[in-house]
UniProtKB/TrEMBL annotation:
Species, as recorded: Coffea canephora
Upper lineage: Eukaryota, Viridiplantae, Streptophyta, Embryophyta, Tracheophyta
Protein name: Uncharacterized protein
Keywords: Cell membrane, Glycoprotein, Leucine-rich repeat, Membrane, Repeat, Signal, Transmembrane, Transmembrane helix
Annotated Disease resistance R13L4/SHOC-2-like LRR domain residues: 242-410
InterPro entries hit by this protein: Leu-rich_rpt, Leu-rich_rpt_typical-subtyp, LRR_dom_sf, LRR_N_plant-typ, LRR_R13L4/SHOC2-like, RLP23-like
Signal peptide annotation: 1-23
Domain Leucine-rich repeat-containing N-terminal plant-type per the UniProt entry, residue ranges: 37-73
Family statement drawn from the similarity comment of this UniProt entry: Belongs to the RLP family.
Protein's UniProt keywords contain Phosphoprotein: no
GO cellular component: plasma membrane
PANTHER family for this protein: LRR RECEPTOR-LIKE KINASE (PTHR48063), RECEPTOR LIKE PROTEIN 30-LIKE (PTHR48063:SF112)
Amino acid sequence: MIKFTPFIVLWFVFLAGRIGLGCLHVGAYSNVSCFENERRGLLEFKKDLVDKSNRLASWTGEDCCSWEGVECNRSTGHVVKLDLHNNAVFDLDRLIFGDKQNYSSIYGETCLGGQISPSLVNLQHLHYLDLSSNYFAGIRVPTFIGSLKNLRYLNLSNAGFDGTIPPQLGNLSALEYLDLGEKSGGFSDEISGYQLSTKSLCANSFNSTIPLWLFNLTSLVHLDLSFNSFFGPVVPHSLQHWTLLSYLDLTGNQFNTSLLDPLFTLNNLVHLDLSDNQIQGPLPFSLGNLTSLSVLHMGDNSFEGPIPSAIGQLRELTELNLNGNGFNGTIPSSLWRLSELKSLDLSGNPLSGELRDIHFAKLAQLKELRLSSPLLALNVSSSWVPPFQLHTIEMRSIKIGPKFPLWLQTQQRVENLDMSNASISDTIPDWFERVYIYILHLQNNSLQGIIPHPDINMTLDILQILHLSDNHFNGSIPDSLCSLQMLVVLDLSNNQLSGRIPSCIGKLKTLGELHLANNSLHGHIPISLGHLNDLQSLHLNRNNFTGTVPFSLRHLKNLRYLDLGNNELEGIIPAWIGDELSSLSFLVLESNNFHGDISMNLCKLSSLRVLNLEDNNLTGHIPRCFNNFTAMTLTELDPTVTSYIEELSLFVKGEMLNYTSTNGRYVIFMGLSGNKLSGEIPVELMSLVGLQGLDLSRNHLSGRIPENIGNLSQLESLDLSKNDLSGPIPQSLSNLDSLGWLNLSFNKLTGPIPSGRHLQTLDDPTIYMGNSGLCGEPLDKSCPDGKSNAGESDGDHEDGKESYFYWFYAGLAPGFAVGLLGFFSVLCFKKSWRYAYFGFLENLLNKVWVEIALLKRKFV
């Protein structure tokens, strides 16, 4: 039998009491619900919102603490958190590369919009408010938010607000985090009274210097001003107040030459990003003061001179990015002693020297290495075992060859390998298959032999991008490539490959780019390519393909770039290209055997920027509906137009020019030369004011050159040669100030050659040869009847008018004097005229005096 001592009894009583209190506490918490005035405030707020995706469906019932995005204090029941940010992931790649209009619409459905009701002021205990990544259609940030005195976190970024930031936000003295990113507006200097520990203002368009009130925020720890339009000095002297600042991001602004030394006194900085600005000059040695720095990004500026040796003092540095500047000379030895480095990017600088094993000896933590300069060479021993395990190796344009570097075998999982233009003249070794790679760039080398059959069961099944272009590979395309089920980009162009395209290529469902141009491939284009639903870029040009364009390609709804030029394809140009491939921006079918009329259905390709149908057997008229190519009316390029790396070769300006998106050269071009087209040049083409190149040469076009050809203000190359054009050359042609190439030869043009303005610089007589009716410079044939060039005759006409008025006014005074002298001479010698004249004057004076007398009497 258990004996209950007084101590045990007391212990059970104590436990019972604790358990009872605990139960009471749980019961009390379970009954906590939001206050009625706060619930009504939230419902009023919801009523003014536009909620297309019904995200706030749970906002019903009495307990607002259980509503989506609402959080209450567990003790008091007051609403303390309202988080309505848009959870939908914004996929920029999908927006740019996919169906832009459809995706924008889908994403927009998930955004809250409408108005923000003042009823939010009922939530006076609110600590946290997040309305980011919605779309409030350009309304201003509400001033009443400044009355939510307990706010510590405010995020209105990417929400479509406009106007200036209201000064009332300066009342939020408890605010610790403010994010107004992607807001187009300006700041009020009155927002300076609160102690911010974290501030993000990224991706705005303020277009000003940094607001002065920011420098009064002495508690700043985290400051993000990235992707705005701030300009002027990088930092004024008042930044000395930012003594606690550890994170500073000024990426993507317009800061230029500035005093960096004051910035380098902020000893607590751990993260500093000045990338993508306009900062010039040498990098100061005072950079070495930032001994706490872990991340330093200064890429894409205009720094010059050597990398300072003081950079070796940044012993805590884990990321160093100086890419895209003008740093030159050798890499300082102190940099190679930064043993904590995980990411090193010195690419895009004209650095020089030889890199040996010893340079990398202390970089055991390194994961990313990016170097590119034709003045750099990697010279390591064949037995070298690096101390690091890299997942990114980008060593473009560095002398690495002639053999494949054996040390790559030691790297267990390389995600990105780029050794393009690296002077490697070797075969791809067997051991290469054992390197895990997602992205492989080996283009612009002298690699030879056959493309290896990859052992898919080992490592290459993860390959997503394969660039082997501009090498010396021969043989056929191996069927085993069809097993690379994650492949997005396959580029085998500019090699010596032969045979047929494997039909199994159609199994690569994720393929977005297929480049097989400039090889010796033959046979029919496989029907299976129509299964590549994600394909956006198809380059099969400069091969020996025969047959017709497969009907199955109509399924490629996302195709933006189709180049089948320089093959032996035949038949008519399919009408379904215009009906089905509505996303096409580039259509190149030049140098084939296509015949028949140009289908009017092509006019539906409103996004078309390049149409090249040259050197076929096309007949009929140029469709007047070509003015529906609205992309050719743009004088500024939409940055979202370009998909992948575009490559385009066009014979313009008398030579073959290469246009790519990577070297910043874009083109809007129409080429119909070398066919059998007839009829007049449609005047509707003159509305395509974005055209940079127009080639209609070597056809049977007749009639006159359109008078308003001068509307094509962007035109750099115009070739109308070898047609049957007649009549005068329009004077408006002289308005084309961008024109650098002109060919009107071998037509039936007549009359004087226009001159004036830019056209006078095109003084090669071969431009006009073969037109017996033309005259004037630069031809040796003078115009008859004293006529000069059309432009000069207009000038002469103007000069003639000026001369006429000059002599008119010059003769006016003498003529008046002579006439007056003659009149008085008559009066002197003819008595009757003299009496009549003076009698007339006497009568006139009498009438004047009478009128004056009457007026005087009237007013006196």
